[in-house]
Amino acid sequence: MLQEQVLVPATVRKFVIHSDQLKSAARAISLPSRSSGTITMMLSSSELRLGESTPDNGFSVATAVDLVRSNLAEDEIVGFEFPKQLLASLGHHYNCELSFELDKEQDALAWRGSGRSFHMTAPVRFFEAKSRAEEPRHLAQVDARVLYHAIGYAALLIENRTAGTQAFDGLQISGGRARSGYLGGVSLYRSTGLPDALSFVLPKRNVNNARAAIGKMQGAVVVAETDDAVFIKSGSTELSWIKTGRCRPFDGIFDTAMAATFDVAVAEALDSTTIARIASDRGRVVLETSDSNHVLSLLSISPTSRYDVAFKGALRECSLAPGSKLELNINLADLHRVLLSIRTLDAEISITKHLLIVKSACADYVETSALAALH
Fold this sequence. Notes:
With about 375 residues, this protein is α+β, with helices and mostly antiparallel strands. Helix content is about 15%, strand content about 45%.
């Protein structure tokens, strides 16, 4: 007697993968902002490569997972895409091996969980799978934690970029430093953990997505580039963005001669700034000197109310003569954001008539932000 055989149409590709792998991949590639809402798949005989990008394809994250088995030829690659919500649903509703059938004629993806007799089906769009036109050139290897903190600190004030200006539409890393900001305030992160060979500009619009992706990486990551793009890879996960954006040089601002410098407890300075901000985000730092004392205070500038708080600190140095008074109007929201980011217990606050600088340092890094006077 002849055994009954089930014939698989030539246009159907079968593969099996565990739901936990899809769940892990979904977490790795998820973009917190500006997502296109579409997951791109590259299916080969041994692995499935998943990617998510922004609508303009200027930024993307991709990762690869091994298949349990498939019926694809060894040199065959199939490209297709489907909605992001579907990938999240697969990882959420199943905890087992999933058997998939990809039908090119029907433009459909069907799947079934192990032990289940019914199929679920969703439409997909196929596209021609293309190999990378240019192999990236190695730039440097850097610890993911160092890169994560460098981008996070340098980007503190980047969202405040003044409308109509392009001077700070990117975050720059080069020479062991990460820097960015806007015309009213800039931030600089220095660390021996950032190799001198590491040099790139991260466009402002991609900062949040890049930091989120790097935050999921562990250990050393490899940074590479082509003429058009930058790549950061950790294991099977890779993020990339199209080169654009610039950051105006401003490191020299931190060499400005300051009128006075105080050592402050970060928690106390943060409390004072929080109180002063109750009335307004526009504030004033006041330094009054005498033969026996130097008093630093912080007050809000509001037509309806006033909060005046002491800015406790130990004087380190002062070039002002006794009896002098120095006032500096600043953005309290920026100062609060800078103080909130500090990971050390103590910091330095320095002021002149036109500038306030906050600096925190430890053995591994130095973080410095400069806030310009408001007019």
